[in-house]
Structure formats: structure tokens, C-alpha cells
Design goal:
Blueprint (H helix, E strand, L loop, with lengths): L31 H16 L9 H21 L5 H65 L9 E3 L3 E17 L2 E18 L6 E4 L12 E4 L4 E2 L13 E4 L4 E8 L8 E7 L9 E7 L31 E4 L9 E6 L2 E7 L4 E5 L2 H10 L9 E5 L5 H13 L7 E3 L6 E3 L9
Length: about 425
């Protein structure tokens, strides 16, 4: 059985048609980065052969190489589109760098060495200048030290490793001397300087010889002032308080009294030079500077007491002079002795004219205590109390003396009360 033909159903057949399909391949995209790399590489290559100018090829070649590498990466991301430009640009730029380096290498090395040499010369010049400045500074320092006044840093204390010397007091007044067992006062006033000499060592003693030794004029004490005045020293051996020669043991202290002419009023300070060899401390001098404002221009020795006629053991003062007698309380040494009676104070004085306890102002007692010399036991002040002494009075005296710089152990308060009496012709008036 055969299938019926289409014409048999009244349908016209469709004639066959020809369909053409054309495939157009997409042209490769050019790489702008690769082209830029090629251009920079060519420019670098054109100058790389020329000495000196070839140095300019380096920045062009480096930039071209960077663009070529970036263009290569981008081309790979685009499935290889434009990769040829990137490779060519990178190659040309690298070749330019190589040629430029090869041609100008000696120039670069020579320039580097010259630059290093210039840096070294500059550093050397700087070091030489610093050395010259240091040498100049050291020379100036030596000149300054040589020209510096050694008195600039001097004070009332001078010391070295073995000896310490200190000015204890400086006072203008009459000088007490002792001859044939009797004390005498000079007619004229002198400058009296008390110095303290301390042995600072722990195991060595030294022998002190007075700076007033008339047999050694070259090593005597010298006193000048800021006006270049020179003052003569007294060599009198019988002056009370003078130490002629003495051994000073470790950590022990002695004092000596130096007596000079009175300084001029216009001076601002005194300069006392004491040779070290007097203390077996080697060469050189102890330099002590004493401001004139520290000089005490009044002292007990300057106050002229009234002439009292001799009346045996007891003496009578003039009518207006207060003299106090204390039974059995005459000091046997030179320690400053103060009597407290009621709320008043009296101090022991011994002169050719008058001997006894005399009323004294509180400020005077403090000044005298500061200048007092210690005895062998280190005592500087002895306080006696009468039966009428007020506790507040002697306690105030102790407190003020300690605050004035007197060590507490150098102040002795006697335990026993003393019996006192006012001499005939005088009157006792309390504060």
C-alpha cells in the first residue's frame, strides 16, 4: 500500500530554499598598556647607546617594563587579547635597561665613588672642625681655670681629705694676754679670728703648729681684703686662746686664735690664707673668705667697766653697775658661765678692774655663746640657777642657745641651786 501524494489532498508543496550562515571572527583588541610599553621601550632604547644620556633611559625603561607587565596580566585576564604588545613592550624596555646599564656602568660607578669620597671628605672636615673646636674649648677652659680667682668659691670653711678648717668667729676688740699668772687687756683693738681645726681621718694624727709662729714667717697666716689691703699678724705668744703646737688625733678638734690689724671699713670681705703644711697636709693653702658683715664690732673686752677700788677678796662696783656674787660658783675655766636669777640673766666676767656676774641682755648671751670655746669635755656654756630662778627663764635660755647652733651636749645645766647676793651699791632689777 502506498501513501497518497500530497496533491491528492489539495496542498501545494513548499519549494526548497538555500540558507547561508556566515561566521565573522572578532578581530583581536589592541592593548593600550602594551602599546605604551612599546613606545617607552623604543624611546629608552634610542638613548641607551649614548654615554651619559643613556642614564635617562633608566626611568623610561623602568616605566615601560612596568606597563608591559601590567598589560600582560590584563591580556591574560582577557583570554590573551593584546598579549603580544605587552610582551614586546616588556622586552624592548628590558633591553633598553640592559644596554643603558652596560654603556654607562663605569660612569655610574665612578659617580658613586666620587660621591662617597665627597661624603668622606665632608665628614673628615667636620671631624677636624669638631676636634679643633674641642681643642679650642679645652684651651679656653684651661685659660679660664688659670685666670679664675681662687677666692671666688671660698667660704668660711675649707677642707681636704685629712683636715677641715673653719672660721668660728671674727671679732674686733681688745686682746687678753697672760703674763706672770695675771691677765691683761691690750690698749688697742685688734681683729680676733678663731679658727677650728679638725682631723678628718680615722687612723692618722697630725701635728699642728700655729699659723702665728714668728719663727716661720714664710708659712704664717696671711690676711688681705677685696681692696688688696694687707694686714699684719700679731706674733705674741702669751695671748689667751692661742695654740702654739698640739697633736690632733683622728676625729678630734682644736681651736686657735689669730690676731690681726683691724680691717678698713670699706672692705666687703676678708681673705684668710692658711698654709696646709702647718697641719702636715701637704702644699698649698686653705682659703677662707670672711664677709665683713659677720664681724662682731663689740665684745666684752671693748666695754670699759668702771674702775673699782680693791677691797680684798670682795670688790664694790659703782652705784649704777650691777654686780652679783655667788658663793662658791667662781668658774675655774673659760667656759661661758651664765647665772639665771628670777627672770634675769648674768654672765661671769673677769677683768683687772671687776670680777663677778654682770647683768646681760638675752641677745648678748646668744652672741657670746656662739663665740665661746669648748673646754676639754666639749662644754661651751654652763648655766647656774639661783633659788629664785624661774623654770621658764632657764628653759628659754636652753632652747634659744640650741636654736642658735650650740649643740645640746655642749650646754651644761648644774643640778644644785646657788646662793647669790647683789653687791653693795648695786641693785638687781628683773626683766
Amino acid at each position: 500500500m502506498t501513501a497518497p501524494r500530497p496533491e491528492n489532498f489539495g496542498v501545494q508543496p513548499i519549494p526548497p530554499t538555500e540558507v547561508k550562515v556566515e561566521v565573522h571572527p572578532q578581530p583581536a583588541k589592541a592593548s593600550s598598556l602594551g602599546i605604551g610599553s612599546i613606545i617607552l621601550g623604543i624611546l629608552a632604547l634610542s638613548v641607551a647607546w649614548v654615554p651619559w644620556f643613556g642614564l635617562y633611559a633608566s626611568p623610561l625603561g623602568v616605566l615601560g617594563l612596568i606597563l608591559g607587565v601590567i598589560g600582560f596580566v590584563v591580556a591574560m585576564w582577557r583570554s590573551g587579547s593584546g598579549i603580544g604588545f605587552a610582551i614586546a613592550g616588556s622586552a624592548i624596555s628590558a633591553l633598553a635597561l640592559f644596554i643603558g646599564y652596560s654603556v654607562n656602568r663605569d660612569i655610574v660607578i665612578a659617580g658613586y665613588e666620587q660621591a662617597q669620597a665627597a661624603i668622606r671628605r665632608s665628614q673628615q672636615r667636620g671631624d677636624e672642625e669638631d676636634l679643633q673646636q674641642n681643642e679650642l674649648g679645652a684651651a679656653n677652659d684651661e685659660i679660664a681655670v688659670a685666670n679664675a680667682d681662687p677666692w671666688d668659691n671660698a667660704t668660711t670653711v675649707a677642707e681636704d681629705d685629712t683636715v677641715r678648717v673653719e672660721v668660728v668667729s671674727a671679732e674686733i676688740g681688745r686682746v687678753k694676754s697672760r703674763s706672770f699668772g695675771e691677765d691683761h687687756l691690750t690698749e688697742d683693738n685688734w681683729l680676733k679670728i678663731v679658727v677650728r681645726i679638725q682631723n678628718r681621718t680615722e687612723s692618722k694624727k697630725f701635728r699642728y703648729m700655729s699659723w702665728c709662729d714668728s719663727g716661720d714667717l714664710r708659712n704664717r697666716a696671711k690676711l688681705t681684703d677685696d681692696l688688696d689691703n694687707k694686714y699684719s699678724i700679731s706674733y705674741e705668744r702669751d695671748i689667751v686662746g692661742r695654740t702654739t703646737i698640739e697633736s690632733v688625733y683622728p676625729d678630734k678638734t682644736i681651736t686657735d686664735l689669730l690676731v690681726f690689724e683691724i680691717p678698713v671699713d670699706k672692705a666687703k670681705f676678708l681673705k684668710l690664707a692658711l698654709p696646709k703644711n702647718k697641719c702636715e697636709a701637704g702644699d698649698g693653702e686653705f682659703l677662707l673668705k670672711i664677709p665683713m658683715r659677720l664681724l662682731a664690732r663689740e665684745s666684752i673686752s671693748e666695754k670699759k667697766l668702771p674702775a673699782i677700788p680693791d677691797n680684798g677678796h670682795k670688790q664694790e662696783a659703782k652705784k649704777n653697775q650691777v654686780v652679783i656674787d655667788v658663793d662658791g660658783a667662781e668658774p675655774l675655766d673659760e667656759v661661758l658661765t651664765i647665772l639665771v636669777a628670777d627672770r634675769s640673766y648674768a654672765v661671769w666676767r673677769m677683768t683687772p678692774e671687776v670680777t663677778g656676774y654682770f647683768l646681760a641682755e638675752f641677745d648678748e648671751l646668744v652672741r657670746l655663746a656662739r663665740n665661746a670655746k669648748p673646754n676639754d669635755d666639749g662644754v661651751r656654756v654652763r648655766i647656774l640657777r639661783s633659788e629664785s630662778a624661774k623654770v621658764s627663764a632657764w628653759q628659754k635660755l636652753q632652747t634659744e642657745l640650741v636654736q642658735a647652733g650650740i649643740p645640746a651636749e655642749a650646754i651644761v645645766l648644774t643640778k644644785d641651786l646657788v646662793v647669790m647676793s647683789v653687791r653693795k651699791g648695786t641693785s638687781m632689777r628683773g626683766e
